[in-house]
Amino acid sequence: MPLLLTKISKVLLSVFRRLKSIPHDDPDLTSDNWCMKQPCAKIRIASKEVIISQPLSTFWVFLLGLLTVGVSQYFFQIQNGENSRLWWGISLLLWGIGALLAGTSYQAFGYEIKCAGRPFCSWTSWWEVVYLMFQQASMNAMLVALAYSCTTGTFQMVLLGYAVMSSVVYIILTFIGGIVPIKSLITFEFMVWVSTPVFLFFCLLNAWRYYMFSYYMDLVLLGSWILLLCTMMAYWIYNKLGITKKLWAKGIWFSENDVLHVFLIFWILYITIFVADRIKDHTIPALL
């Protein structure tokens, strides 16, 4: 039995290590020049020296993650029997954990996880793959929250069913993408593409409800979706214009990911101040 378990563990480790076979988008990136292409800082943990990648970016993403987890706890505290607040809390908890996972591999320990001791650096890691799963599940948990606060009856059941089905299918596809591996299934862009219909539904639902009933809850929710849209547009424009490289050439590191995280910090503060206390279950007539 111990020999069998050893063989099984070796097979599993071999399967999970396939993810490292995806080459980095920058084929010239190595452990020797990693810190020439992005800022690094060396810290000592016990007797080991560890390289921290993008220290300021690490600060922003960890601040976002911890803040989002903290706001999720606030939703749990003010739940007061409201299913919508419960699911907002779950959504933000998943979002915050995902941000911490992403920051660990994309920023803080990116060198140690994807590059240290290797001739060439890996493109991604399981930290990042699991982050994608958490992020997409967070969007669907948010869909559940809106289903409870904005709909009832048949329409609500359809939305709840879609949220579960979408999460399960995406997680399975992403897991397959990491195991095989299939790069197209484990990109940030694919996760955004899968989440976009849900986001558009948020916008349309709250815009229609506010137009029909003029409820303040829908107005503040619509404001949150507009802010989220502005966040993604700022990220895309910053990345498209190549501003990160231009600033880094001048010794200033502020990447497109920093733009994303700083905007999201403002978004989560907006959620805390304007949205949290106004979320309630079934405050207006059902759509169907």
Explained architecture:
- The protein has helices at about 1-15, 35, 55-75, 85-110, 110-115, 125-150, 155-180, 190-215, 215-240, 245-250, 255-275; strands spanning about 40-45, 50-55.
- With about 290 residues, it is mainly alpha-helical.
- It has a single domain, classed as Rhopdopsin 7-helix transmembrane proteins, CATH 1.20.1070.
- Strands 1-2 form a two-stranded antiparallel sheet.
- Strand 1 (about 40-45) and strand 2 form a beta hairpin.
- The longest helix is centred in the middle third of the chain and has 27 residues, at about 155-180.
- It starts with a helix and ends in a 13-residue tail after the last helix.
Question: Could you give a short description of this structure?
Answer:
Helix content is 70%, strand content 4%. It has 288 residues and is mainly alpha-helical.
